[in-house]
Amino acid sequence: MPGPDELVPGAPAWVDLSTSDVDAASAFYEALFGWEADDVVDARFGGYRVFRLDGRRVAGIGMNTDEDPGPPHWNVFLLTFNAATTSGLIEEAGGTVLFEPMVVPARGVIGMAIDATGAVVGYWQPAVVEGFDVFGEIGGAVWFELNASDFDAAERFYAHAFDWSVVRNDGEPRRAVFERGGRDLAGIVDASRTLGADDAPSWSVAFGVADVDEAVERAVAAGAILVRPPWDLTTGRRAGLVDPTGAPFLVASDAER
C-alpha cells in the first residue's frame, strides 16, 4: 500500500461504516481492533465519528442515510483529484452518481455512486485530510475487493472512471488486481457464481490482525457472526464476519501486503 505522501489516484483512500447503531458498532470495533473514536465530527444524521489507532486516522463511522442506501456495510472511497470530473466519468461508464460531490469543510470533497455492476463506491478528493493514516498493517485496512456480479463490466467501469490498469488472473474465480508501481492496491473478484439472487455486488474490506483465529473468537464473543470460517491463502489467513449491527467484514493475517 502507498504511504500518505504517495497518493495514487484510483487507490483506496478511506473506509467508513454505514450502520444503524453507531454506539454499538463503535464499541465493537474499539474492543476488537484497539481503535478509539473521536468525538462527533458531524452531528447530522446521528453523528459521524473518526476512528483512530495510536492517534492516527484509520476509518470512519456514521448512520445509514438516504444517500448511502442499504443495510449496514463498509464503504470504500477511491482517491480522486477532481471529484466533479470523476462524477462525469462514472456516468459515462454506466454508473449512477448518488449525490453531487459535497464539500466537507476543512477536509476535502466526498462523492458516492453506484458502479456499473450495482455496487456502492465512494470517492474522495483530499484537501487537508488526505485519507487514512493506518493501512496495510495490523489494526488497519489491509485489502479492498469488489465482489462483482459482472466481472468484465466491473473491470471496464473502474478502468474508465478511476483509470485502473489491472493484472488479471483467469483462474477460478477470476480476479483482477489494480496495481501501480509494483504495488497491489485493490481488486475485483468474479462473484457471479457465489452471489445469491438477492445479494447485491459489494466492496469488502479486510482488517489486519496478528492472529485470525484469536480475532474471530473475540469478535464472536462480542456479538459478531462468523459467516466464513478461517481459511488459508498463499498470502496468509482470513475469515469472514458480520458485526453486531449487520455489516460484513474480513479479518486477515496478511497485514503486510
Automatic annotation (TrEMBL):
Family annotation (Pfam families): Glyoxalase (PF00903)
Start and end residues of each VOC domain: 11-126, 140-254
Domain of life: Bacteria
Identification of the protein by name: VOC domain-containing protein
Species per Swiss-Prot/TrEMBL record: Agromyces ramosus
Lineage: Bacteria, Bacillati, Actinomycetota, Actinomycetes, Micrococcales
